[in-house]
Write a structure and sequence with these properties.
Order of helices and strands: EEHHHEHEHEHEEEEEH
Distance between the termini: 44 Å
Strand order of the largest sheet: 1-2-3-4-5-6-7-8-9-10
Helix content: 25-40%
Strand content: 15-25%
Bound molecules: iron/sulfur cluster
Structural class: alpha/beta
Shape: globular
């Protein structure tokens, strides 16, 4: 059975094909820099294409049910973070904004924690930010990222292409830096562990002032 959720290490995640819409990709808001630095290696595989076409063809309820089915399947793995990550790579294009927002809200109501990253500002604006739901807006310019973050409770993510860490910014301050292996926050430097971030209110699940 084909899935639309796949593991990023121990995290059930959504991957969409990278690249511009006109090339069959999902990265409508991509800059040249992010495409060049994308960890996908600039190649889309059949799993990513299938997930993207599944979202295109189906309604919110069907996508929600499929995500739950895949999530429950992946939950049988011994190392499984109990959450969903959005857009490990790829992104939500504007024609899918409302649909993706409704799916994310539906999953949140069901009780599964979610975090992720998007350059789709409208999606970021529509989605609420709660202790168990943080979809960060990726902003490439550091000063701009800090500036936007001062005006909102929501997460802003700044990709630092010099160090290959993503900086998670809340309320105008970088609260953590994470590269998927190491997570450096205001208290400690430790292995990346999204379950710990969720339970301690750190990283993408920051719960401070
Ligand atoms: S900051 Fe924490 S929650 Fe975010 S990706 Fe890193 S380990 Fe996971």
């Amino acid at each position: 059975m084909r899935r639309i959720l796949h593991m990023d290490s121990d995290i059930p995640s959504i991957y969409f094909p990278i690249g511009k819409i006109e090339d069959g990709g999902s990265c409508e808001f991509a800059t040249e820099t992010c495409i060049l630095n994308c960890p996908s290696g600039m190649i889309s595989n059949k799993h990513e294409k299938y997930a993207f076409s599944f979202f295109k063809k189906n309604d919110v309820e069907r996508i929600f049910n499929k995500l739950l089915m895949d999530y429950n399947y992946l939950a049988n793995r011994p190392y499984n973070a109990k959450m969903i990550q959005w857009f490990c790579w790829g992104d939500c294009p504007s024609f899918m904004t409302e649909k993706v927002a409704d799916v994310i809200k539906r999953i949140a109501e069901y009780g599964i924690p979610q975090y992720g990253f998007t350059r789709n500002k409208k999606l970021w604006e529509i989605l609420p930010s709660t202790d168990r739901l943080h979809i960060g807006l990726t902003v490439e310019n550091y000063s701009k990222a800090l500036g936007i973050s001062k005006t909102t409770d929501k997460m802003i993510a700044h990709p630092d292409y010099d160090t290959w860490y993503a900086q998670m910014i809340f309320h105008g301050k970088v609260r953590s830096r994470c590269n998927g292996w190491w997570c450096v926050n205001e208290i400690e430097e430790r292995n990346s562990d999204c379950t710990r971030c969720l339970s301690h209110g750190e990283g993408c699940y920051y719960r401070g002032d």
